[in-house]
Amino acid sequence: MAQAPPPPGPGRVTSLHLAARTGEPTVRVAQASAVTGRGLAGDRNYWAGEGPRPRRRGAGRASGVCDVTLIEAEALDALAREHGITLTSAECRRNLVCRDIRLNPLVDQEFQIGAVTLRGLKLSEPCARLEQLVRPGLIRGLLHRGGLRAEVVRGGTIRVGDRILPLPPDARPLPPPAPAGLP
Fold first, then answer.
1. Contact 150, 120 (CB under 8 A)
2. What is the pLDDT, as a whole number, of residue 51?
3. Cross-strand bridge partners of residue 163
4. Cα 141 from Cα 117, distance rounded (Å)
């Protein structure tokens, strides 16, 4: 009899990537500023407009809020193993590559990365644009494991190495750590 998969988390951020504009290559960074209701500062999905971000932007896959995108490193490992397609963490075009956490169960859930709180919105299924920018075969290879789209609920700094912890529905986010040297 098959065992049920383990519950999500805790996991870790293994790499962090930003792209200044849509279609440009992503650049690996050590940390990024997550801004509530706007996204990751310096990223293509950052909302720099006046007022709050619209809840919908366009039609089809481009619709809805997308402050941050995440993918499991294990999905990239499986893509290489099962389909012979090797992607670097930057080529997958997601902001955060994570390990040891299942992202699909985080849809409609809040989770914490360091002192930042995110809410999973929906799966980030691969699209034809990803295949155009990177290489053919990605849609089939990443179907239902292409990652997660999330919004920033509580901002702060996300760093490579930060722990990722799902929050119980009634949990409040942990306060940010006190600066060193303060009582």
1. yes
2. 73
3. 12
4. 29
**Tokens at 57, concatenated:** 């932007």
Q: Which amino acid, one-letter code, is at 126?
A: P
**Cα–Cα–Cα angle for 6, 31, 79, nearest 5°?**
45
**Residue 61 reports pLDDT greater than 50:** no
Q: CB neighbours of 97 closer than 8 A, spacing ≥ 6?
A: 13, 14, 15, 16, 17, 70, 71, 72, 73, 76, 89
The amino acid that residue 12 corresponds to is: R
pTM reported for the whole predicted model? 0.80
Contact, 72 vs 102, CB < 8 A? yes
Q: Report pLDDT digits (tens) over 64-102.
A: 568 999 999 999 998 889 888 888 888 888 899 999 999
Taking the CA atoms of residue 139, residue 145, residue 151 and residue 152 in that order, the dihedral angle to the nearest 10 degrees is -130
CB atoms within 10 A of CB 143: 11
Distance CA 107, CA 140 (A): 21
Read off the pLDDT band of 60 (50, 70, 90). Answer: very low
Among positive and negative, which fits the CA dihedral 127, 133, 134, 136? positive
Alpha-carbon distance 165 to 147, whole Å? 16
* Direct distance between the N- and C-terminal alpha carbons of the chain, in angstroms, rounded to an integer: 54
Query: What is the token pair recorded at 135?
Result: 């290489």
> At which residue do the structure tokens 């691969």 appear?
126
